[in-house]
Amino acid sequence: NAGVTQTPKFQVLKTGQSMTLQCAQDMNHNSMYWYRQDPGMGLRLIYYSASEGTTDKGEVPNGYNVSRLNKREFSLRLESAAPSQTSVYFCASSDRVIMAGELFFGEGSRLTVL
Amino acid sequence: RKEVEQDPGPFNVPEGATVAFNCTYSNSASQSFFWYRQDCRKEPKLLMSVYSSGNEDGRFTAQLNRASQYISLLIRDSKLSDSATYLCVGEADSWGKLQFGAGTQVVVTP
Prior knowledge:
The complex is a heterodimer.
Chain A: E1 4-7, E2 10-13, E3 19-25, E4 31-38, E5 42-49, E6 56-57, E7 64-68, E8 74-78, E9 87-94, E10 104-105, E11 109-113
Parallel strand pairs in A: 2-11
Antiparallel strand pairs in A: 1-3, 3-8, 4-5, 4-9, 5-6, 7-8, 9-10, 9-11
Chain B: E1 4-6, E2 11-14, E3 19-25, E4 33-38, E5 44-50, E6 54-57, E7 60-65, E8 70-75, E9 84-91, E10 98-100, E11 104-109
Parallel strand pairs in B: 2-11
Antiparallel strand pairs in B: 1-3, 3-8, 4-5, 4-9, 6-7, 7-8, 9-10, 9-11
């Protein structure tokens, strides 16, 4: 079972470059999320999608855009990367109908912006 | 002030011992709480949910104290494999957005 798959797992960018993090889930979940994790800060929600066709800002959306391409896929785009966006990014999905609060995470994408 | 706060640790625990640590939350309206486990350089995974006053799952016991706004996690008979960072999580709003603490590191030593 693949669960939640993120690509790429590692990426180094220069300031000002753009990139897209891809995420796909095969659990037929309605809700999908993008978090970033920084030392001492915990996981912070960037954007989420409660269902296909909807997206909403989370706690730290500035500098990011998202696309819920279909029920399976939720991508995160950095239009002009900045060193402050160096972080570990996690995509997650959930089915709140069955289990509120249980998020299934991808393995993470480690991004360094020079 | 962070909505969910945790002692970062590390809590160094001899194998077989009991360890307990707390997490405080500021949103008194939060109804549900969760403990996630995160191994080094891995993704978080749900350990247990905490509804009403608490929950027990094998060697793990979670308790919720609404009056003092904290959640505790107790691990009995610690195993080397329990070494991880434990994330305290609260529901941030009625939709169910989650608020993560920064985590408490536990190191179980032989």
